[in-house]
Amino acid sequence: MFEAFCNGAIFYGPFWDNLLGYRRRSLEDPTHVLFMRYEEMKAEPRDQINRLAEFLGYPFTKQEEDNGFVDEVLDLSSLPNLNGLEVNKTGK
C-alpha cells in the first residue's frame, strides 16, 4: 500500500494531485472550498474553529465567545474526548 501511495497508484488517484487541486480551488473560490491545514489547526485551534464556523455560515456570536462556547466546542471535538465516547469504544 505504501508503494502504491507513493506511486499514485491508488483507487482515488494520486494523493498530491488531489491535495494540490483542492488547494488551488480553495484559492479560486474560497466561499465554496475551505482548505484547512493540520499545522494551523494544531497551532491556532480557536482561530481555525472560528474560520470553520464562518465558512459554514454560522459564526460564533460575541456572547458565545465570551461565554466560552468556542472552548467548549474545541474540548468536545478533541481527540481525547472523541476517543472516550462509548460509540468509539463499542461501535454502539
Q: Please, what is the oligomeric state?
A: single chain
Uncertain parts: none
Please report the distance between the alpha carbons of the first and last residues. 30 Å
Helix content: 55-70%
- How do the SSEs run, as a string of H and E? HHHHHHHH
User: What would the average pLDDT be, to the nearest integer?
Assistant: 91
Describe this structure in words.
It is an enzyme of class 2 (transferase). Keywords: Transferase. By secondary structure, the protein is mainly alpha-helical. The protein has two domains: 33 residues, no CATH class; 57 residues, no CATH class. 66% of the residues lie in helices and 0% in strands. The chain has eight helices and no strands. Helix 4 packs across helix 6. The longest helix has 14 residues. The radius of gyration is 17 Å and the shape is flat.
Present the secondary structure layout:
Blueprint: H1 2-7, H2 15-28, H3 38-43, H4 45-55, H5 62-66, H6 69-76, H7 79-84, H8 86-90
Helix pairs in contact: 4-6
Task: Provide a compact summary of the structure.
By secondary structure, the protein is mainly alpha-helical. It has eight helices and no strands.
